[in-house]
Amino acid sequence: MRKYNLLSNYTNKKIKRSAKKNYRTIENKIIATYRGKDFFDGDRENGYGGYIYDGRWKKYAKKIIKEYKLNNKSKVLHINSEKGFILNDIKEYLPKIEVIGTETSEYAIKKTMKNIKKNIYLSEPTKLPFKNNYFDFVLAIGVVYGLSLTNAIKCLKEINRVTKNFSFINLGSYNDKKDLELFNKWSLLGVTLLKEKEWVKVLKHVNYKGDYYFTNSKSLGLK
Questions:
Q1: Which of 35, 50, 191, 220 could form a disulfide with 105 if both were Cys (CB 3.0 to 4.6 A apart)?
Q2: What is the pLDDT of residues 176-186, one digit of tens each?
Q3: What is the pTM of this model?
Q4: Alpha-carbon distance 24 to 62, whole Å?
């Protein structure tokens, strides 16, 4: 188990995200839970505000390939792969690699990039339809802390089960009451937000062996 910032520099530090009161209401959060058109391609208050391919994941695809020693014989799983941008970029660099995604959103699958759409499965992250130790690398961004603690533990156990070599997850965290309030005001789907030392206890409980990092109000540039 290693703390490692795979997503370093993903957030533009010059851009300050607003977590002002009533920016995202319970109505917005209800809409977001469906992870449909309104979440991906609707108003910013409900989600991404238009999730389009802009090439930003290319540098992370390169980083993933290098860091986790992937090659054309490797197998990669992205849990909640959204529109498949990361998998697309990995496959661009390694054309023969096996890339697979799971999604809870039929809309996201419908909008997945054409060259990998056939490799995306409708599946919950708590019950992955794959064999033990099948994947060389498993990626789960914004997945684990979007679940209840009970289901987060189930998800982590599933990641352990299907991973042969490496995995990466991020976890929603906070340091104090102000951090927690900012994160809750901003986050639409964050459910289990814990202090870092508490997450470490959860990871040890499930014997998680992969990489992890914390997403919080500071890393998101919330104010």
A1: 35
A2: 999 999 999 99
A3: 0.94
A4: 34
